[in-house]
Amino acid sequence: MTYAGETVTTTDDVAEALVQLTASIAADGQAEAVSIPIVTEAGDTEEAELVIGVGNDVLSAPADDFAGEEPDFSWAAEELRQHKRFPKAPAVAHEQTIDTDNPDAFWDPDLDGFTRA
């Protein structure tokens, strides 16, 4: 990840979630502080504090020179995905099923009656 001219190393799932959250917050015209786990050059795990959203560019690119075992930061990616501004999947419309055993299932108060004859 590149942020404010600095490069930090995190996992792919954290980077992907951070980019999506940044775009969502920026689309609302806002900015917000978040924390993500990173791996230092010495291989230690640390936390990075970032301000994301409007005016804060985040770039995610593969780290081809990363040597070592990839840490498990899946918990952090999930925290980012649970953020109130993380983009949610659009609702999917489902066709109403016919319930012949329950005629009240078709009651529509806006039509003052049943929706079928």
Description:
The protein has one domain (1-117). With 117 residues, it is of the alpha+beta class. Strands 2-1-5 form a 3-stranded antiparallel beta sheet, with helices on one face. It is 21% helix and 24% strand. The model has no long low-confidence stretch (mean pLDDT 82).
List the helices and strands and how they pair.
Elements lengths: L1 E2 L2 E2 L4 H16 L3 E9 L5 E9 L4 E2 L14 H8 L25 E2 L4 E2 L3
Antiparallel strand pairs: 1-2, 1-5, 3-4, 6-7
Radius of gyration: 23 Å
- Give the distance, in angstroms, between the N- and C-terminal Cα atoms: 60 Å
* Count of DSSP strands: 7
Percentage of β-strand residues:
15-25%
Order of helices and strands: EEHEEEHEE
Helix percentage range? 10-25%
**What is the average per-residue confidence, as pLDDT, rounded to a whole number?**
82
Determine the structural class based on helices, strands and strand pairing: alpha+beta
Number of helical runs?
A: 2
List the strand order in the largest sheet. 2-1-5
How many domains?
Answer: 1
Question: What characteristic shape results from the CA principal axes?
Answer: elongated
User: For the report, how would you describe the main beta sheet?
Assistant: 3 strands, antiparallel
Give unreliable regions as ranges: none
| Assembly of the depicted chains | single chain
Quick summary of this structure?
This protein has helices at 12-27, 74-81, and strands at 2-3, 6-7, 31-39, 45-53, 58-59, 107-108, 113-114.
